[in-house]
Write a structure and sequence with these properties.
Length: 162
């Protein structure tokens, strides 16, 4: 197949005492995301989307939260490893489209930095990475500011073998 698509989703609880990292960018905020790694829901969703496109399971299978090697690891490292896996399977990421669901903080001024970090790690042009942010309009746990979630979709293309 020349093209493969995948979708990814992640959600983490917000807690005090952790840095908030989204898209590989530290965002000033009073809380951070709880998790074994840096808990970057955006990058985890992108990793799962790539893995889904490859038919290779999910991020937890590749980087289990029981492995001390991944304790507090930057999710940019995990994204790099997943990208290497895609490259090894003969594919490259063509584009990424993602949505972050967060009541707070406002992410507008950080999206360009996130796009840069993601594009850099995937070795693609920034124009091939799109990030949207939305609130939950006060509805549910996310709307009450208890956590942050992200969805991502990717298109993988077969590398030219000529």
């Amino acid at each position: 197949m020349n093209y493969r698509t995948g979708i990814g989703y992640d959600i983490h609880r917000l807690v005090k005492g952790r840095k908030l990292i989204l898209g590989g960018v530290e965002i000033p905020y009073s809380k951070g995301l709880e998790g074994h790694s840096d808990a970057d829901v955006l990058l985890h969703a992108i990793c799962d989307a790539i893995l889904g496109a490859l038919g290779k399971g999910d991020i937890g299978e590749h980087f289990p939260n029981t492995d001390p090697l991944y304790k507090n690891v930057s999710s940019l490292v995990l994204l790099g490893k997943i990208n290497d896996l895609a490259q090894g399977e003969g594919y490259h990421v063509n584009n990424v489209d993602a949505v972050i669901q967060a009541e707070e903080p406002c992410l507008k001024e950080y999206k360009s930095q996130m796009r840069f970090r993601i594009a850099d790690q995937l070795a693609i042009d920034e124009s091939c990475v799109n990030i949207k942010a939305t609130t939950q309009e006060g509805l549910g746990a996310l709307g009450k500011g208890e956590g942050i979630a992200a969805f991502a979709t990717v298109l993988l293309m077969k590398k030219n073998t000529n």
